[in-house]
């Protein structure tokens, strides 16, 4: 589904990502974990085109994305939920969702969005800025989903959200992934959340992948050792 090969990303003259390579299978969920400042967000921003890659390849179903604008990558099949949600606070919930359907001639919120996120149906006329953190996260996921992504990318989705809502989001993502058939990449520091959704784990440290685990034989203690200061 997604193949990244020898990806190098810089901030100015400082190299942040070093020859990163990974493969994501169809309908697979991949957790990229690590402490703050290790390169998680840089990697995801480079996938969606918010940061340019100096070299390397990003292939989505065999199509090269490197060099494309962010909106072109969304049209090609990537969906992105940024860290901090980045919803439009002065637009209504429904208007926020419809911004993810800008290319549609007659955009309407699909029924499945409100089926999986009933709170958004209840609050569809409310301004996005008046929602709680958990509700805003659901709104940001809904906005990304309406473009029908082949790969959905989430950056730190549990940040600032109550544990009960985190469990609800994990359950909903698993159900949506089964029904909609997309693959999932999640950047995260909360192991309990990724254990609910991930098939595979990659640990990033100082811009390098340093550890890999499959869900069935995950070494929780080793992963936690990379997450603690």
Short recap of the structure:
The chain has 229 residues and is an alpha/beta fold. The chain has helices at 40-48, 70-76, 93-98, 111-116, 118-122, 133-145, 163-180, 191-197, 220-227; strands at 2-11, 14-24, 29-33, 55-60, 63-64, 78-81, 151-155, 183-188, 200-205, 208-214. It has a single domain (2-227), classed as Rossmann fold (3-Layer(aba) Sandwich), CATH 3.40.50.
- Strand tally, please? 10
The level of helicity is 25-40%
From the alpha carbons, calculate the radius of gyration and give it in angstroms: 17 Å
Q: Look at the helices and sheets and give the structural class.
A: alpha/beta
Head-to-tail CA distance between termini: 34 Å
Give unreliable regions as ranges. Answer: none
| Percentage of β-strand residues | 25-35%
What spatial order of strands do you see in the largest sheet? Answer: 6-7-8-3-9-10
Order of helices and strands: EEEHEEHEHHHHEHEHEEH
The CATH architecture classification is 3-Layer(aba) Sandwich
The tally of structural domains comes to 1
**What fold name stands as the CATH topology?**
Rossmann fold
CATH superfamily placement:
P-loop containing nucleotide triphosphate hydrolases
Shape: globular
How would you sum up this structure, described in words?
With 229 residues, this protein is an alpha/beta fold. It has one domain: 3-Layer(aba) Sandwich (Rossmann fold). Helices cover 34% and strands 27% of the residues. A six-stranded mixed sheet has the order 6-7-8-3-9-10, sandwiched between helices. A four-stranded antiparallel sheet has the order 2-1-4-5, with helices on one face. A hairpin with a 2-residue loop joins strand 4 and strand 5. The longest helix has 18 residues. The radius of gyration is 17 Å and the shape is globular. The two termini are 34 Å apart. The mean pLDDT is 89.
């Amino acid at each position: 589904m997604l193949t990244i090969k020898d990806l190098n990303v810089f901030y100015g003259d400082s190299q942040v990502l070093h020859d990163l390579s990974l493969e994501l299978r169809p309908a697979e969920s991949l957790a990229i974990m690590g402490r703050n400042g290790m390169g998680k967000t840089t990697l995801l921003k480079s996938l969606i085109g918010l940061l340019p890659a100096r070299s390397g390849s990003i292939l989505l179903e065999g199509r090269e994305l490197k060099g494309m604008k962010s909106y072109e990558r969304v049209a090609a099949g990537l969906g992105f939920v940024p860290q901090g949600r980045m919803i439009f606070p002065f637009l209504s919930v429904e208007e926020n969702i419809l911004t993810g359907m800008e290319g549609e001639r007659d955009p309407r919120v699909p029924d499945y969005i409100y089926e999986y996120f009933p709170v958004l149906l209840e609050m569809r006329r409310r301004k996005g800025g008046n929602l709680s953190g958990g509700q805003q996260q659901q709104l940001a996921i809904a906005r990304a989903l309406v473009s029908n992504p082949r790969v959905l990318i989430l950056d730190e989705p549990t940040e600032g959200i109550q544990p009960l809502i985190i469990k609800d989001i994990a359950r909903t993502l698993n159900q949506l992934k089964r029904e909609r058939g997309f693959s999932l990449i999640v950047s995260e520091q909360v192991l309990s959340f990724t254990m609910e959704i991930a098939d595979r784990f990659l640990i990033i440290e100082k811009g390098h992948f340093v550890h890999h685990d499959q869900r069935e034989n995950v070494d929780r203690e080793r992963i936690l050792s990379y997450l603690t200061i």
